[in-house]
Write a structure and sequence with these properties.
Shape: globular
Number of strands: 15
Mean pLDDT: 85
Structural class: alpha+beta
Number of helices: 10
Bound molecules: zinc ion
Strand order of the largest sheet: 1-2-8-7-3
Largest sheet: 5 strands, antiparallel
Order of helices and strands: EEHHEEEEHEEEEEHHEHHEEEHHH
Radius of gyration: 26 Å
Length: 472
C-alpha cells in the first residue's frame, strides 16, 4: 500500500483526504493475446511519452495541456494521456534539478568565500556542476485515466473487475480481468461499516521483469488525532540507523547484509563498465546496458526496509499520543550523512525516510513537523555547546564542555525534538546565524551553572577542515 497524492488540514479533529494505492495486482497471464496487444500499445506509448519528456525537460516548460506535436498511431485520447504523464515527469525532474543546482551555487559561494579568507582546506575541491541527463524511460509505465482505460466491476463471480483498455486498433478495446487478493480486499473494506470503498478511476499499468502490474487507488478520510500540546519525539535520520528517536530507540539499519549486497552490486557494475569500455575500443556498436537490475532491486529492498523502520517507530506503544519532529534534510546534508554508501544509492534513499515519515503520519493522523536540521548533530543537547569536535567519530557524541557522552544519533534526535516552534532558529538567515543562536544559548547555560566567563573549553583551531563537509 503506497501513497499517491495527498492533501491535509493541520488542526486537531479536522478531517482530510489521503489517496491510498492498491499495488502489486498482477495481470492474469492466461490472456496472452490481450497482453500482447497491451505490449504493442505500451511500446508506442513509451516512445511518445519519451519525446514529450525530452521536449519538456529541454526546450519547453512542462505543460499537460500542450497541443499535440508528435506523430503517432495512438488515438487522440492516448496522446493526451502521454503528454500529461510526460509533463508530470518533466516537472519533478526540473524541480529536483533546480534544488541541486541551488545547492551547487550555495556550495560554490561558500567555497569562494573561504578562498577569499584563505581558509580553504587542503583537500577541498572547487564544486563543479555536471549537467543532468534528461530522464530516459526504460520500462513501460502508463498513468491512465478513464478516457483510455475503464475499470468496471465484474458481474460474474470469478473476477472482481474488468479493465477495458483501448488499443492501437480503434474500436477494439481489450478486456483484461482483474482479481484482487484477500489482502487487497481487506484494505478496501472499511473495518467498522464493512462497506467496500469506491475505487478512483485513474489507474497505473506497469511492466516489470516481463510482468504487467496494476495499481488502483482509493480515497480515505483521516482525522488528526494529535492534541496540540502532545509531547514531541524527535527523529534523527541516518544510514547506520535509519531512524533514531529522542526516546532513545533505533529502528532499521543499513546493516551487514545490505552492505554486502551493495558491495557485490558495485563490483558487478564496475566489471560491466570495464567490459563496455573494452568493447567500445574494439568498435562494437551495440554495448551492454549499464542499468543494473540487481541495483534496482537493491534500491527497492532498502526502501522496503525504511518503510518497515518508520512503521515500527510510529507503531511503538511508547509513542502513543505523541507528535513527531523530523529533520528537513537538504541535498548537501543528505550527501554528508550518506557517505558510507555510494553515489548510486545516496540521496534517493535518505530522502525516502522523511517522505515515509510524512506519509505514515498523514495515514495515522499524527502530527509530524519538519524542523531545521543545521548543527543538530554537533549541538550538545545539555549545554548547547556546538562544535564539530563534539563528534570524535560517527557514532559518538562527547561534549567538549559539559562532558555529556551519548550515542550521536540520540543526541541529535533530542535536539530535533526541541526545535518545533523554535522561532529564534527559524528567523536565522544562514548557518552562521544558527550557530550564533546556539552558542548564545550555551553562554546562557554557563551563566546558569555559575560558570561565568571562565571558559574551560580549549580554543578551536580554524581552517583544519572544510565546514562544507559537515552541514548538520
Ligand atoms: Zn555539553
Amino acid at each position: 500500500m503506497k501513497k499517491r497524492r495527498r492533501r491535509r488540514g493541520n488542526q486537531q479533529g479536522q478531517p482530510y483526504t489521503i489517496t491510498k494505492a492498491l499495488t502489486h495486482i498482477r495481470l492474469d497471464e492466461a490472456n496472452t493475446g490481450k497482453l500482447t496487444a497491451l505490449d504493442e500499445l505500451a511500446q508506442v506509448y513509451l516512445a511518445l511519452t519519451q519525446q514529450y519528456v525530452s521536449l519538456f525537460c529541454t526546450t519547453e516548460l512542462p505543460n499537460k495541456l500542450r497541443d499535440p506535436l508528435c506523430q503517432t498511431p495512438l488515438s487522440e485520447r492516448w496522446h493526451r494521456v502521454a503528454i500529461m504523464q510526460a509533463a508530470g515527469i518533466a516537472k519533478s525532474w526540473r524541480s529536483n534539478r533546480a534544488v541541486a543546482y541551488q545547492q551547487y551555487q550555495d556550495e560554490k559561494a561558500r567555497y569562494q568565500k573561504q578562498q577569499a579568507n584563505g581558509t580553504v582546506a587542503a583537500k577541498a575541491k572547487e564544486p563543479r556542476w555536471r549537467e543532468w541527463n534528461v530522464p530516459i524511460l526504460r520500462e513501460p509505465c502508463i498513468q491512465a485515466n478513464v478516457n483510455v482505460v475503464k475499470l468496471e466491476e465484474s458481474q460474474d463471480s470469478t473476477y472482481d473487475y474488468w479493465l477495458s483498455i483501448s488499443t492501437l486498433e480503434k474500436g477494439h478495446p481489450i478486456a483484461v480481468p482483474v482479481k484482487l487478493s484477500a489482502y487487497h480486499k481487506e484494505a478496501l473494506t472499511d473495518p467498522k461499516t464493512h462497506e467496500v470503498k469506491k475505487l478512483n478511476s485513474s489507474v497505473q499499468l506497469k511492466k516489470r521483469d516481463g510482468v504487467w502490474w496494476l495499481t488502483l487507488s482509493y480515497d480515505e478520510e483521516v482525522t488528526i488525532q494529535t492534541v496540540p500540546d502532545a509531547p514531541v519525539v524527535g527523529i534523527d535520520v541516518g544510514i547506520a540507523n535509519f531512524v533514531t528517536t529522542s526516546t532513545g530507540k533505533h529502528y532499521g539499519a543499513f546493516h551487514k547484509d545490505l552492505r554486502a549486497r551493495h558491495k557485490r552490486d558495485r563490483a558487478r557494475r564496475r566489471r560491466k563498465a570495464k567490459l563496455r569500455a573494452c568493447l567500445k575500443k574494439k568498435g562494437v556498436k551495440k554495448l551492454p546496458s549499464t542499468s543494473s537490475r540487481t541495483g534496482q532491486r537493491l534500491i527497492r529492498h532498502v526502501k522496503h526496509e525504511i518503510n518497515h523502520a518508520v512503521n515500527q517507530c510510529f507503531a511503538d506503544p511508547e509513542h502513543e499520543g505523541v507528535q513527531f519532529a523530523y529533520e528537513q534534510l537538504s541535498v548537501a546534508s543528505m550527501r554528508f550523512k550518506a557517505r558510507a554508501q555510494n553515489a548510486y544509492l545516496r540521496a534517493s534513499n535518505l530522502g525516502h525516510i522523511p517522505q515515509q515519515i510524512i506519509w505514515k503520519s498523514q495515514k495515522r493522523g499524527v502530527q509530524a513537523t519538519p524542523v531545521i536540521s543545521a548543527y543538530s548533530s554537533q549541538e550538545c543537547s545539555v549545554c548547547h555547546y556546538t562544535d564539530r569536535k563534539n563528534r570524535p567519530n560517527q557514532q559518538t557524541f562527547c561534549c567538549q564542555v559539559c562532558g555529556l557522552e551519548a550515542h550521536a544519533d540520540h543526541n541529535a534526535s533530542v535536539n530535533i525534538s526541541r526545535r518545533v516552534g523554535d522561532k529564534a532558529l527559524c528567523a536565522c538567515r544562514d548557518r552562521t546565524a544558527i550557530k550564533a543562536v546556539l552558542m548564545k544559548r550555551h553562554e546562557a547555560w554557563k551563566q546558569q551553572q555559575g560558570m561565568g566567563n571562565s571558559s574551560p573549553m580549549k580554543r578551536r583551531r580554524r581552517g583544519k577542515s572544510s565546514p562544507a563537509a559537515s552541514p548538520t
